[in-house]
Amino acid sequence: MEDEVDRLVAAWRRERPDLDVEPLEVLSRVGRLSRHLDIARRSAFAEHALEPWEFDVLTALRRAGAPYQLSPGQLLTQTLVTSGTMTNRIDRLAGKGLVQRLPDPDDRRGVLVRLTRAGQERADAALSGLLDHERAILAELSPAQRGDLAALLRQLVAPFDNLAD
């Protein structure tokens, strides 16, 4: 089975035989897959009237466990955005009734962001929809292949994640 990356690599090998284009065989596929995943995820979120960033914030709160609340700083760490961006996102989600701001009992100047019941229902439904889409994408791989691929990707991604720590 040939794909677009095979054609791209063959063309570079023909045009620039002096270069080792082997990295393209893996990373160009990862890049193309990333674009396809982005399209699939946007579709899955749209089915639940969510933008990707809304899903990120709501599911960060959902993963926190009851009472489904985090400080804005904790949300920043989990979603990798600036404080100004997070403030805007919290405002917009609060305006939709998906989160609420509460005073932080441990910090008189601080606030906590809590998932509302509507936010929890939306996050849960969107996650189920996303997983359905992602299972379909992985359907051609056996469970063992999925495990092997996850391990290999972890090996590539971990150094980047550890830089953020």
UniProtKB/TrEMBL annotation:
GO MF annotations for this entry?
DNA binding; DNA-binding transcription factor activity
Task: Give the UniProt keywords, A-Z.
Answer: DNA-binding, Transcription, Transcription regulation
InterPro entries xrefs: HTH_MarR-typ, Tscrpt_reg_MarR-type_CS, WH-like_DNA-bd_sf, WH_DNA-bd_sf
- Specify whether Cytoplasm is a keyword of the entry: no
User: Is DNA-binding included in the keywords of this UniProt record?
Assistant: yes
Could you tell me which residue ranges the HTH marR-type domain spans?
23-158
Question: This protein is called what?
Answer: DNA-binding transcriptional regulator, MarR family
The record lists the organism as Streptacidiphilus jiangxiensis
